[in-house]
Amino acid sequence: TVVILDFGSQFTRLIARRFREMGAYSVILPGTAPLERIQQEQPVGIVLSGGPSSVYDENAPKPAPGVLDLNMPILGVCYGMQYLAHEAGGDVKRAGKREYGKADLTEYGGELFKGIEGEFVAWMSHSDSVTQLPQGYQVVAKTEDTPVTAIENNETKRYGVQFHPEVVHTPKGGQLLGNFLDICGVSRDWTPQHILDELIAGVQEQVGSEGRVLLGISGGVDSSTLALLLSRAVGDRLTAVFVDHGLLRLNEREQVETALRGAGVNVVTVDAREEFMHHLDGVSDPEQKRKIIGREFIRVFDRETEKYGPFEFLAQGTLYPDVIESAGGEGAANIKSHHNVGGLPEDLAFKLVEPFRTLFKDEVREIAKLLGLPDDIRMRHPFPGPGLAIRCLGAITEEKLDILRRVDDIFISGLREFGLYDQCSQALAVLTPIQSVGVMGDERTYSYTVALRAVTTGDFMTAEWARLPYEFLGTMSNRIVNQVHEVNRVVYDITGKPPATIEWE
Ligand code: XMP
């Protein structure tokens, strides 16, 4: 294991992902994690991440006492490097100007850069710099503006880089991180097949030979993959419950049922469409809609699962990003109350089975491939728990949902047909309450406006609107207006997040 101590950089997770992509298991812990906590992970190397602090700040976060004395390689990135240098008696100063963006290394060498050749573009984002080297260290890379861009102490195996090797803007950064893994001598057995075998064995051990497991499925990649995994692990002792709240997309329920039943998963579908419509009738406030759906979902799930129980275990598709105890992220404002199938209340009398707690989404997708999940589900964009209800602005009706379903299907099928689906992180259609005047075949129309939205993002916390080709957007607009008579105007949402959110409600 490589332990990454997080000092609050927005890129910390990327470091873990890069290591894992190279087959090395790594975990993220808070920068100030106690030594015993770090040792629990049986580390063979440590990374000190970047972060917003300056080593001179009074409250600058520091690794726990003893961490720097551990007899293993340590790599400091940005703030991490400054901390290493400062602790070893070097000098760190606020640079005259912030250095932000791409910089070319004018020279580089040493262990970290071993085997790397040619131009090295490094992504910088810092205002402090190491101005005087600590004892035992040497400079191993420079840029025009930063004479001390990377340092190393080969005796103690301490390394520091001022730039961010983990981001795509540092194209050869992966090689550098790979060199660090080699220096640590960490085993490279974190492969999808290995992960899958371990997960199955882990579930079998937890659940035992009698235990029965309940799982709520949504049609998304996480719960579908989990269903396949659990069914491999415990067979028919898994009951996968699919609540159809009537807010799903065209043919979605059938698609998921077919994929999972075909693989031998014991799927129970609950048709709760009327109940949800009844409770949502006339409700137009977005938060209210979300709350009702979340509440009803739990009620229906509870009631229905009584019929198939008793269950000792409840499985959830919780992913690593949801459990990372990293620096920062506290006290975020409540923008929307999220509901999802995984978010069942904890006071249900179950033991939780959460095999994906250590995985990133792309790792789940790799495992899904091994488990034979069809690609159209495996590579699917996320879909929110409250479903189409939050894409049909204002109070929902059957008629509006039906319009939205047809529009969404044209747009999503179109993205697939034009090979654009995988280039977007998420795409959706929104039915607005706006009606406007149009003309079709010499006739005046007065119909709905739909908005199309597509975004690219890594973590869904921020997003850019996708620059879809005009040609494609034009084709979509024609198809939608021609095939969905209730719509006479199509607009494309060109707002990023922030300031907008991805969903419209
Ligand atoms: P926003 O609209 O907040 O969405 O930018 C960010 C991501 O979260 C998804 N989303 C949800 N997912 N339950 C979910 O499981 C929810 O209640 C929910 N609300 C939004 C949204 O689709 C996007 O991927």
UniProtKB/TrEMBL annotation:
Ranges for domain GMPS ATP-PPase: 190-380
Reactions performed catalytically: XMP + L-glutamine + ATP + H2O = GMP + L-glutamate + AMP + diphosphate + 2 H(+)
EC number: 6.3.5.2
The name this protein goes by in its record: GMP synthase [glutamine-hydrolyzing]
Pathway: Purine metabolism; GMP biosynthesis; GMP from XMP (L-Gln route): step 1/1
One cellular-component annotation, GO: cytosol
NCBIfam families reported for this sequence: guaA_Cterm, guaA_Nterm, PRK00074.1
InterPro entries: Class_I_gatase-like, GATASE, GMP_synth_C, GMP_synth_GATase, GMP_synthase, GMPS_ATP_PPase_dom, NAD/GMP_synthase, Rossmann-like_a/b/a_fold
Subunit details: Homodimer.
Superkingdom, natural source: Bacteria
